[in-house]
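SAMPLE LOG
Freezer: B-3
Tube label: C17
Construct: single chain, 182 aa
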Amino acid sequence: MRWKLFGCAVFLVLVAAGWAHLRPVAGERFQGLTAAQWASEIGQWRLVMWGRSNKTGIMSFWRRKRSQIATLLQELGIQTTEERFEMPLLKGDPAALPVLIELLESTDSQVRLMAAEGLEQLREKARPAIPALLHAIDDEDETVREQAEQTLYRVDREAAGKVGLEWTIMGLIRRDSKPKQP
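STRUCTURE (predicted):
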């Protein structure tokens, strides 16, 4: 009798745990992942190169970090092909828009940077992100701030002009758009 009760209790615990795992996660999704899951994935990437040009603006190159298993296999002399250079959020897919907007509000500056880059790839299709970009152009992280400025300029030049952004021979600059106090 005890074993039957114990078996029933274990069964109920497993069912409850499985139900909790199968429960849908709230929030927008892109390629089946929520913004929180994408933020975790972005943590597996590193910024290899970041720079700016007066003609093309900011350029960056991201690379996925090698997993611990791939690193161990490499140390053992076993070659792996676990290299990925293309982040789906940076491919300009309009379906990523809601997730990118949510990621732009992350507490992690790397996540915000990649979100701003992803929005830039959408160009004018990212217009719904303008309020979030207007907030991001005042980001505490200089790299995120500059990327957000460039993204805003490429998404909506009129909105960018209203906050003092303009493209000059020196590249994108932000003029003081607030009237000076006497």
